[in-house]
Amino acid sequence: MLKGGYVGKILRVNLSKNKVSVEDINEKWAEDFIGGRGYGTRLFMEEVDPNVDPLSEENKLILATGPLGSTYAPSSGRIMVITKGPLNGAIACSNSGGHFASDLKRAGFDFMIIEGKAEKPIYIWIYKGNVEIRDATELWGKTTKETDKILRSLTHPEAGTLEIGPAAEKLSLISNITFDGHRAAGRTGVGAVLGSKNLKGISAFGTESITVSDNERFAKAVYNARDILSKDAFSGSGGATYGTALLVNVINGVGGLPAFNGHDAFLETADKISGETLTKEYLIRAEGCDSCPIACGRVTEIRKGKYKGNKGVGPEYESIWALGAMCGVDDMDAVVMANYICDDYGFDTISAGSTIACAMDLFEAGYIRESDVGFSLKFKDPDALVNAMKLMAEQNTDFGKLLAKGSYRLAEHYGHPEFSMTAKKQEFPAYDPRAIKGIGLEYATSNRGACHVRGYTIAVEVLGDGDKNTYEGKATLTKTLQDLTAALDSTGICLFTTFGLKGKEIAELFSSATGFECDEQEFMKKGERIWNLEKAFNIKAGFTKDDDKLPERMEKESIKSGPSKGEITDLGKMLPEYYKSRGWDENGIPTPEKLKELGLEGIL
């Protein structure tokens, strides 16, 4: 019997049959896979054929909370979205903050399975264990902020909400799922899955309290964790003061900020779009997710110029980079405005900005004509950035529809897929793998396509005492951080806590909350089990060693300027060692011995 941390229930909603049912969670799976990302992936693999079309009725989407969610553990408001990603067909597990995860648990459910397809637009109202499927025809076409506001007015003013914007309704492959009107599960096109199912949103409210296994022990673990976080430079003060965008000057300062679609990794005028500038000229207030002492979120307003009066949330570091440096744009008004458009329509800002950068690159190379776009689309042009973002959002032109498919399909359409800065067809984030070697290995091996939050090597290579230029030890570092993050994501707490907390502290929070005794070594093994489970899904979906690669530009074209001038990367110096460190064969396939060690016999 479950002792604490879990409600113990799974909500299943079949949209085709307009049917709702409730199931008990599997206690063995909870112990082995924790919750959130781990349990959700195990459940997804049980239910969905890896070869399913991501936008078909047969694909499912699972919302997964962790056992630390809705407790008073620090930064425990995370929710995971697990499905097969429309952008690349890989296992999609997208993470978001906000308050919805806690509201779903307080309403009576740890997990929610969404399956089938509704005949017309609907939304779901979850209230203290009761579930209603309601007509959402009038909501279709509304922005994420509008939908959030309307859902609360139709259900409960304090409800947590989930919504998709017009991007997902139109099945954009880079659309996201938004929570509470402004937090996003942004990557792999998960929003399009709900769009394909005609599910516009979910509203949840409940009052159920979440018990823990050992109150006194848990209280001590929480106190210790919060004390450690309060003393860290980012989680203690930097996050609230400058948000994640404080990294703009830090990463640019080491020559690792990808610019001009990856032709460079340094932007001389980066301070114009830095966290310091955002705080000084745009910030209204800092904002945190549920139970979060870090408060890295930004509520902002454009106070001058042609976009004066527009308000919203963000941009965060990745958004500023993608819409700014990657496009060569150093006009903060334009970057913030483009970010607002992304949020309103429901786009992944990383993929959106990188796709526009790819389009600018193709335009300057002569492959995209001005007649295709309707205006000049050059690097450094702030008007071109915002106008391209509008084309992507509205999708009322052929070029706008192309942009909404992401950079790989855009570049492929024009005969030059090598212009797409992607791994597994997903745009890579705001760290250049030529300047920072370990993050390149993470991009190439990430189970959901290029990603920095599956193994944040930056914490060691740039923010810690590691050497960003060496290949030595990066295989072990990447594996360790990937395993840690997989386990962490499954608990329901935020990745940013790992700036201060180590596996030991997180394992103690998990053990004292759930009663599943788990030291740091066992916690890491759970993460490794989850990583191998995701890998198994991708192998069954047709991914091979050939997909573990970086854009050829990263290995052939050196950085042009800045502190890392002249650097390239060589993935071949790390990948074989990485496979070996994981106990996989030379083709990147988990061996039978490794699967047996992890209790995953028969998964492949």
3D architecture notes:
With 604 residues, the chain is of the alpha+beta class. The protein folds into 3 domains: 9-205, Aldehyde ferredoxin oxidoreductase, N-terminal domain (Aldehyde Ferredoxin Oxidoreductase,  A, domain 1); 243-426, Aldehyde Ferredoxin Oxidoreductase Protein, subunit A, domain 2 (Orthogonal Bundle), CATH 1.10.569.10; 429-597, Aldehyde Ferredoxin Oxidoreductase Protein, subunit A, domain 3, CATH 1.10.599. 39% of the residues lie in helices and 13% in strands. It is built from 25 helices and 17 strands. The strands form 4 sheets. A 6-stranded mixed beta sheet has the order 2-1-6-3-4-5, with helices on both faces. Strands 8-7-12-9-10-11 form a 6-stranded mixed beta sheet, with helices on both faces. Helix 2 (36-47) packs across helix 20, helix 2 runs parallel beside helix 22 and helix 11 (317-323) packs parallel to helix 13 (349-364). The protein is globular, with a radius of gyration of 22 Å. The protein starts with 8 loop residues before the first strand and ends in a 7-residue tail after the last helix.
* CATH homologous superfamily grouping of the largest domain: Aldehyde ferredoxin oxidoreductase, N-terminal domain
C-alpha Rg (nearest Å): 22 Å
Mean pLDDT across all amino acids: 95
Low-confidence stretches: none
Q: Which CATH first-tier class of the largest domain would you pick? A: Alpha Beta
Largest sheet: 6 strands, mixed
Q: Tell me roughly what share of residues is in helical segments.
A: 25-40%
| CATH-assigned fold name of the largest domain | Aldehyde Ferredoxin Oxidoreductase,  A, domain 1
Number of domains: 3
SS element count, helices: 25
Side-by-side strand order of the widest sheet: 2-1-6-3-4-5
Query: Based on CA inertia axes, which overall geometry fits?
Result: globular
| Shape-level CATH architecture of the largest domain | 4-Layer Sandwich
| Measured distance between first and last alpha carbons | 30 Å
Strand content: 5-15%
Total beta strands: 17
**Helix/strand/pairing class, anyone?**
alpha+beta
